[in-house]
Amino acid sequence: MESYKIPKVYYNDHYYNNDIKPPTIIRETKSHYFIDVTEDDKMIEFRDRAALYASGDYWEDYRGLTLSARATLKVIGSVTNHPDGTQTTHHY
């Protein structure tokens, strides 16, 4: 099964503070999760929120979270592929 290796900080914040849960964890290490790569509504929301956090504009006081979101985007990409075939490119 394919997976993305991402830092735990952003994933945990997303898990506990959002209505849409993040992608499924396949396995974990001390500081990373390996998550499912399936492009679905969960991944779209996960990526969109990571782009928001990574911008750093609102999250200045949460530098660790901002850095974790940026590291996550480096792994999962910053382009959202929508189910209707369109794409959204995030700039931050």
Q: How many H/I helices?
A: 3
Identify the overall geometry: globular
In total, the number of domains comes to 1
Task: Please tell me how large the radius of gyration is.
Answer: 12 Å
- Major sheet: order of its strands? 1-3-2
Total strands = 5
Q: Return the average pLDDT rounded to an integer.
A: 87
Structural class: alpha+beta
What is the H/E order? Answer: EHEEHHEE
- Largest sheet geometry: 3 strands, antiparallel
**What is the helix content?**
40-55%
Indicate the low-confidence ranges by residue numbers. Answer: none
Beginning-to-end CA distance, first to last residue: 31 Å
Beta-strand level of the residues, as a percent range?
15-25%
Structure notes:
The chain is α+β, with helices and mostly antiparallel strands. It has one domain. It is 41% helix and 22% strand. It has helices at residues 8-17, 41-54, 63-76; strands spanning 3-7, 25-28, 32-36, 79-81, 87-89. A 3-stranded antiparallel β-sheet has the order 1-3-2. Strands 4-5 form a two-stranded antiparallel sheet. Strand 4 and strand 5 form a beta hairpin. Helix 2 (41-54) crosses helix 3 (63-76). The longest helix has 14 residues, at 41-54. The radius of gyration is 12 Å and the shape is globular. It starts with a strand and ends with a strand.
Q: What topology does this entry show?
A:
Blueprint: E1 3-7, H1 8-17, E2 25-28, E3 32-36, H2 41-54, H3 63-76, E4 79-81, E5 87-89
Antiparallel strand pairs: 1-3, 2-3, 4-5
Task: Pick out its properties.
two-stranded antiparallel sheet, 22% strand, 92 residues, 3-stranded antiparallel β-sheet, globular, 5 strands, single chain, 41% helix, alpha+beta
